[in-house]
Design a protein that fits this description.
Largest sheet: 5 strands, antiparallel
CATH architecture of one domain: Sandwich
Shape: elongated
Number of helices: 2
Helix content: 25-40%
Structural class: alpha+beta
CATH class of one domain: Mainly Beta
Number of strands: 9
Amino acid sequence: LALYFHSGEREEKCIIEDIPSDTLVIGNYKVQRWDIHKQDFLESAPGLGIFVTVTTPSAEVLLSKLYGPQGTFSFTSYLSGEHVICLQSNSTRFVAFAGSKLRIHLDIRVGEHFLDESVVQAKDKVNEVNFRLEHLIEQMHHISKEQNYEREREEKFRKTSEETNSNILWWAIVQTLILISIGIWQIKSLRDFFISKKLV
């Protein structure tokens, strides 16, 4: 996931990521401040830092840390589900005066372990192949974990659908029984009425 968004200096922006359990998440970000004179965003936002807060599906804070205007944060999920990742600048100005516009670039990698190419080049060919194989095995474990997570979600959705269908069926049966009961009661009432009026 790579994106950028605009934010006020004291404004908190959050994104939701659906992450399997026991998965490494790495986020790279860069903050740019709007320059009124240039009418453009500066390359950086010196003096500003970013508070990064990560909340688990059970509303537990997994990460809460202040970083600089550009950097990397990481965390490992221990629960599967929707994690909320929030970013907010550490501007000391009051909300009323913190009108400066910021652009935040955010790149989130889920379950990826980046290859350090300089390390790979420094090693001989055998070690390089071994290193790449370990990386591929790690990626396969991550894909397997993702598939298991998706399978769990699919199973949960199927159970919910089956329960809903079952409830609809029982409701239809109950409605039918009520309608039949009302029909029998109306026929009996009409018959008793005709008998009492000696029309039958």
